[in-house]
Amino acid sequence: MGKITDVAERFWSGDLSPTDRHPWAALHELEELDTGIAFVSTFANVTAVETGAGLVLIVQPVYDEPEFVVRNVWRLYGGWYDGNPAHLKPAPEGALAAELARLAGGAGRLADRAAALAAEGDLALACQLAELAAAAAPADAAIRAVRSAVYAERADQERSTMAKGIYRWAAGERGD
Fold first, then answer.
1. How far is CA 126 from CA 41, 82, 117, in A?
2. Burial of 3 (0-12, 13-18, 19+ CB in 10 A)
3. Nearest residue to 131 via CA among 172, 108, 97
4. Residue 80 in contact with residue 39, Cβ under 8 Å?
5. What's this model's pTM, rounded to 2 decimal places?
6. Taking Cα atoms as reference points, which of 133, 130, 144 lies closest to residue 105?
């Protein structure tokens, strides 16, 4: 069994045999799947991989992101469960968003924090908060504008075609 970083290194460096070139063929016996490690901790380390010679291989996203490949491998061999029991049978997204907005003092406060995080450069968290704010108050034009701006900025920062496309779509989905 190999660690996902070891197998990912072999795939991205082109060191797999022709019959193993498809990533799924090489990644089906991962230690992480057998030990039940949480999905998030598995794919978090894929962009920088330690090689046998001690070098670090940086995976360059072009069409897709390395973490998307790992996420697909995880789903193929490990199933859809990501290791978080709250995700097994979750509350509807809108209900969770409304409750978090209530705890934060309103959907507007979530949107304000999303804008502040975007300004600080934390676009991943900014997108999550903007999405929660929009789900909690879908008719609020100001919140939709913040959501659109956050996703537009994230699209501008991304390098892969897939990520750019999805974030640009989200930025254009203003609902007005």
1. 21, 22, 5
2. middle
3. 97
4. no
5. 0.70
6. 133
Q: Where are the domains of the chain?
A: 4-85, 91-172
CA distance linking residue 157 with residue 48, whole number of Å? 19
CATH superfamily of 91-172: Alkyl sulfatase, dimerisation domain (1.25.40.880)
* Alpha-carbon gap, residue 35 to 173, rounded angstroms: 40
DSSP count for the chain of H helices, then E strands: 10, 2
121-158 residue pLDDT tens:
999 999 999 999 999 999 999 999 999 999 999 999 99
d(C-alpha 131, C-alpha 151), whole Å = 10
The CA radius of gyration of the chain, in Å to the nearest whole number, is 19
